[in-house]
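INFO  loader      accepted 1 record
INFO  loader      residues=236
INFO  predictor   begin
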Amino acid sequence: MRIVTYNIHKGRGMDGRTSIKRIVSVLGDLNADIIALQEVFAICDSHEGQVEILASELGLKAAFGCTRHHHGRPYGNAILTRWPILQSQEMDISWQSRERRGCVRVDLKAPRGTLHVFNIHMGTSYFERRHQVRSLLSSKQLHEDVSGPRVLVGDFNEWIKGLTTRMLSEQFESLNLALHVRKRRSYPGLLPLMHLDHMYFERPLQVEKAELVRTRLSKIASDHLPLAATFSWAGP
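INFO  predictor   done
INFO  writer      dumping tokens
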């Protein structure tokens, strides 16, 4: 099972050019079963939807969680997958007057059973993330109607091991990139200085391998690099 998380920055690359086709090319080479996208537009009356274009070009199903409207367009997080989507839920994790933030939960009919995927985009302020992680961990959406393993992925905007990392690591396994790659920073894409993109999961899932995708195209297509991990699913 291959999972990718990717903040596509509205399709705007490090060269200042917006190209969703370039994002398609980056993702098309990764052969992922699940792709979690942050900072992505959905369809509206006057514009094509990036979510819909990506799903169509890659031959995947899509679920979108609208965080807010940006320049009149639905904007937020999406999950693309090759597997049937049983249901999806939007979660608001915004704090005070800060930029609105969200999480989308998708329940998937995976080959070995139900898989619950949470795609999260947290804020840039320490106090904001402190509220968001507590809100997330106490939310009914994280705990109710769970019949299979949970995976939490996304842009957590935490580049050092702070409260968010500690609290999530108390309840979930954490993808330790140090075991898989030497260079672990994912932002900004062309010359990464910080590691903002993370994955958390629970047994019986186990990480087999992980990578930050550092192709010539991925370094320029967005201000984040894609994070990809291959999981095994132990048990019957």
